[in-house]
């Protein structure tokens, strides 16, 4: 029992990591803990539109654990330059350390889920990616492009980096976003 | 697709509701969105110790949606006096309104999960209750009893209100907490 308690208290630290998006209607930057909850809800709601049939519960589990590595490694802005491979290695080491607080079989199963998400090696992982990538877009579309403007992100960057993964996981979602992103460009909601 | 987007943006408001417990090591009060994420992780970790065999994925779904009614109704402190029945009715009306943003079959399925949690009518719901009730205790035990001291909550109140539901869902968890709560009393971490 003490192992589970140590694990769950360590997870509390994810509430202190800050992302680049503000909670709607506030000045506070959201954290990966509440973000993970929201994308789990997005995935449950969108599951009927997944590109391939998916086990929605596996998707939810994956989304709940996918940001745990940020407890040690912090949040990296999706459009930031940087050594993506070193970044992934740091997050994986963190995830392994934190899941390792649990008994070995549970630790191994959570790390396997984390790896599955990271490598995008299943229909569930691809759909999970689509939810994870789409959520900040939906918030920016509701927030006059706040994180795009704050961080100098262009329409071309958003489309270039997101069309592939979102379409691969949930084509109907990308069809929807494409029109909304055009509209956002006309509104001047991009930063570059 | 617009229905799902409206729903997920409405859910964003849960990040603005405040609970009585501070995020460890900060002055910020946690919100029910990040709390829902954390108890979903607690339930996944504790599932092998559930009182009865449970479908952990159903438990997770239940925990992800159980606080959605607080978007309209706000958070009620567990130990507060008040009309519990009116409170539940307000939260259920809110949940029905918010889930109702989704297409009818999805709305009905989320509301059924919400009701199942609320009535404690299944092994999954009872285990979910144990996780939900235990999390603030674990945080208070790690936080020198912050929300107990701030709100004048006694050791007898905690034991009286929590022993039943936690033991019913996860006996090993209550066995663990009982000793820790005695220790907290000796430390003077209660408010009354």
From TrEMBL, chains A, B:
Protein name (record): Metal-dependent phosphohydrolase
Domain HD: 11-174
Keywords: Hydrolase, Metal-binding
Pfam families assigned to the protein according to its UniProt record, in alphabetical order: HD_3
Keyword Lipid metabolism: no
Keyword Cell inner membrane: no
InterPro entries reported for this sequence: HD_domain (IPR006674), YfbR/HDDC2 (IPR039356)
Organism, scientific name: Dokdonella koreensis DS-123
Any GO molecular function: metal ion binding
PANTHER family documented for this protein: 5'-DEOXYNUCLEOTIDASE HDDC2 (PTHR11845)
An example Gene Ontology CC term for this record: cytoplasm
């Amino acid at each position: 029992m003490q192992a589970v308690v140590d694990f769950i208290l360590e997870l509390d630290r994810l509430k202190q990591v800050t992302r680049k998006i503000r909670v709607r209607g506030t000045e506070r930057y959201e954290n990966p803990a509440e973000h993970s909850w929201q994308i789990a809800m997005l995935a449950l709601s969108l599951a009927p539109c997944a590109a391939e049939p998916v086990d929605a519960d596996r998707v939810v589990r994956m989304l709940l654990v996918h940001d745990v590595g940020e407890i040690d490694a912090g949040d990296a802005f999706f459009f930031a330059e940087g050594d993506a491979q070193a970044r992934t290695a740091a997050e994986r080491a963190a995830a392994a350390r934190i899941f390792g607080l649990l008994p070995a079989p549970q630790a191994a199963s959570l790390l396997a889920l984390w790896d599955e998400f990271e490598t995008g090696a299943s229909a569930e992982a691809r759909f999970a990616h689509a939810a994870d990538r789409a959520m900040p877009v939906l918030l920016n579309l509701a927030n006059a492009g706040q994180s795009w403007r704050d961080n100098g992100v262009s329409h071309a960057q958003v489309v270039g980096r997101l069309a592939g993964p979102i379409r691969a996981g949930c084509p109907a979602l990308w069809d929807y976003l494409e029109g909304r992103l055009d509209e956002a460009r006309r509104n001047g909601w991009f930063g570059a």
